[in-house]
Design brief:
The chain contains 8 helices and 2 strands. It has 138 residues and is α+β, with helices and mostly antiparallel strands.
Length: 138
């Protein structure tokens, strides 16, 4: 509905929500199924940052001329960095990576070890990547 009204979306950056949630958590590295994983031990709950982000979206509209002075290359770099950082721990990205690893070298994570057919997992991943490409391509 925001697009129809010409308003900015409530969450202007796609990887922001998982990154924000991850930043509020206390985590430690543990070896699970032979793979080093981040394990969350405690997560702080607070609701002010979502409200502040929504308010800053409207402030950004007011200072749009100042924002236009930021070089586009810098913005691309920041968004690229955020996107790459968001890939860590993403299930789709892990399954895409596992397609390029020899079957005997794949770690025994649930998306590999607890499926009846790796071909079905590949098909499911292909459908997800295809839908993502359609969403962002259109």
């Amino acid at each position: 509905p925001c697009g129809f009204l010409g308003l900015p979306p409530g969450n202007g950056l796609i990887p922001q929500a998982p990154l924000h949630t991850r930043s509020l958590c206390t985590k430690e590295m543990k070896e699970i199924d032979g793979v080093q994983r981040e394990v969350y031990t405690k997560c702080e709950e607070q609701r002010y940052s979502g409200l502040l982000q929504a308010a800053l979206m409207f402030v950004a509209l007011a200072v749009l001329t100042v924002i236009s002075w930021i070089p586009v290359g810098s913005l691309f770099g920041v968004l690229l960095y955020l996107g790459i950082v968001a890939l860590h721990g993403n299930a789709i990205w892990e399954r895409v990576r596992f397609n390029f690893i020899k079957p005997e070298r794949r770690p025994p994570v649930p998306s590999v070890a607890k499926v009846s057919s790796w071909r079905q997992t590949q098909l499911f991943t292909f459908v997800q990547v295809g839908c993502t490409a359609i969403i962002f391509g259109v």
